[in-house]
Amino acid sequence: MxxxxxxxxxxxxxxxxxxxxxxxxxxxxxxxxxxxxxxxPIPVGAGAADVxxxxxxxxxxxxxxxxxxxxxxxxxxxxxxxxRVVEPSAIGVPLTAENGSTYGETSPATGRPKTVYxxxxxxxxxxxxxxxxxxxxK
Length: 138
Fold this sequence. Notes:
The chain has helices at 2-26, 48-55, and strands spanning 37-42, 60-64, 67-71, 77-81, 84-85, 89-94, 114-118, 121-122, 128-129, 132-135. By secondary structure, the protein is an alpha+beta fold. The N and C termini lie far apart (61 Å).
């Protein structure tokens, strides 16, 4: 039975891959199939406030001995030791946020490019705020 399930799963993956390739050849693109990601570099030595400013808060955090690990959607992570980033990394964020704003577009309020990704979140009153981009603070 297990072998049959593996075989069926492989056949479905192969079928899905063929459909995606065919749609690409025909010029059809679906956001579910092709997610465009922007990778924001996180420099060694940056502090937690710097990382939060660049890519927003992590999805989860954990401690492994003297290392603090921040995890983000898509498997990206940032490793801290004594409050500073100790290994170079890049966090992937979507090119287009839930509210339709895109990475790098000019903010009408500040005139600066929107390069800081803000993850969607729930307010205290239960209202959901969709993910969006904002410009960096001065």
